[in-house]
Amino acid sequence: MKEWREAQHKVWYYYKTDTGQIIGQVSNITHTDIYTSKVYIDFVQEKYLGQYINSDFARKAVENFWSVQERTLTYDETSS
């Protein structure tokens, strides 16, 4: 299972509840109304998903990314 946790003002982490591993992040670009989202593919690789008009869209992008990965035959649960 995965959940969001607000870490500080305008920053959220998406993490696995069973391990506490952070697998995504949404943050606000300083002094703007724009939010960025990224996912952590493995321990050394991250992928930016884009810039969004609000945090809801940015968080949904992270959730959608992992939803697709979990339904992909080549997805390896141990590497994320």
Folded structure, characterized:
The chain has one helix at residues 55-70, and strands at 2-8, 11-16, 22-28, 35-40, 46-52. The protein starts with a strand and ends in a 10-residue tail after the last helix. The protein has a 5-stranded antiparallel β-sheet, covered by helices on one side. The mean pLDDT is 91. The protein has one domain. The chain is an alpha+beta fold and 80 residues long. It is globular. It contains 1 helix and 5 strands, in the order βββββα.
Main sheet properties: 5 strands, antiparallel
Strand order of the largest sheet: 1-2-3-4-5
Mean pLDDT: 91
* Apparent shape: globular
> What portion of residues is helical?
10-25%
Helix-strand category: alpha+beta
Uncertain regions: pLDDT < 50 for 5+ in a row?
A: none
Q: How would you summarize this macromolecular structure in one to three sentences?
A:
This protein is α+β, with helices and mostly antiparallel strands and about 80 residues long. The protein has one helix spanning about 55-70, and strands at about 1-10, 10-15, 20-30, 35-40, 45-50. It has one domain.
Write the layout of secondary structure elements.
Elements: E1 2-8, E2 11-16, E3 22-28, E4 35-40, E5 46-52, H1 55-70
Antiparallel strand pairs: 1-2, 2-3, 3-4, 4-5
Q: What are the salient characteristics of this protein?
A:
80 residues; alpha+beta
